[in-house]
Design goal:
single chain, mainly beta, Immunoglobulin-like, 3 domains
Amino acid sequence: MAKRILRFLIGAVVVLSVISFSSDSEAQGLNIFRASVDRISGNAGDSVTIGVRYDLSGSKPHNLRSLIARLIYDSSLIHVVSIETSGTATSLLYILDTISPSVIGFLAAGQSNQEIDLANPVLFRLKAVLNSKLSDTAWLRWDQSVAMFGDSSYGIDSIEEVDGWARTPQASGHVAVTIPRVIIYGQSDGYTADSVKTVVPVMLSDISRAGTQSARFSFSYDVQRLLFTGASTKESSDVGIGSLSSTSGNVDVNLLAKGQRIMGSDTVLWLSFTALVGTDTESTVFQSAHWIATNSSSLRGSIDYLIDSITLYGAFRKLSVNEFYGSGSFEVFPNPTSARFTIVPPDEAEYSVKIYDPLGAVCFESARLLKEIEIPRGTTAGLYRVVLRKRGSSFQIVRTLVVGP
């Protein structure tokens, strides 16, 4: 039985861990596990039933006899009364812990150490009450930064996660922009940050009756911890990107309806970043977030921004045997810089130089050391690694260069 309980999560998520075994290495259909939460409609104050479902496709061996899950939700909009397993795939249910009124942890299992009922697509049901504050949409989410299955020994080759929500049947000009908590893990040697790619979803409440044909979403972020690399929408989405601009930590995304209007009630935008993770736990949030309809015929109402934190968990790693950091290695100045910098080597030997960008790609290299290097216009701000290698040796000396906007 899986024993993994993630006690540090404080977002809007269910985390699953399923025991599964594979008996041979024959070429078989991939096992794809699809987890979803119901999307329902109801009025404020209604008592509702929300199903948590799954679908398993594939022909490889498996043994789905237990799972550990943690559901996190917005308790100001949804009050969970109970969890029920009667008539579901789960025979046994144990409440494990509750971090806050918005979090329920539990373990679900099949009967007598057997598999859960694979003929029943419902894992369990939530009995809940929609609070009077619910005006449009309340989310129940999966945290996509958390791996549901740790490795291939579980027998699951791919996993899909579908968020759920409860919304009121009427929609107006009111807009709720939601960005859930994102958790990012990395490893650092204490001198240079670990560059970890991540995607942040931007969710929008149901605005189908607002007549919004175009809108602009803008925000600013901490360039010392994040590097913005782009934005996208799903091909199946009712919204597309008209234009995008990003300057010195400020981003503007202009969205256009593919049909007659932007509907909302789902993730409308995916923001891509590279997180710079050090050895400490750090947290950051988007600042100055704004959503505004840009077509004059759109209904205008109040806007709520439900923006959670982006948390970076850094673990220490030792330097490789052929790397060295230290004040006696070589000097780089000025540091930080945004135009040019000078390298002073530690001795008179011949050195080659390579510079790695925040994504870990080589952005400059020379077989001989140039004492002054100019930074091209438009270079992304962030932490760069300057690596010198002495001719005829595999030993490298490394310094961190901070490039400003």
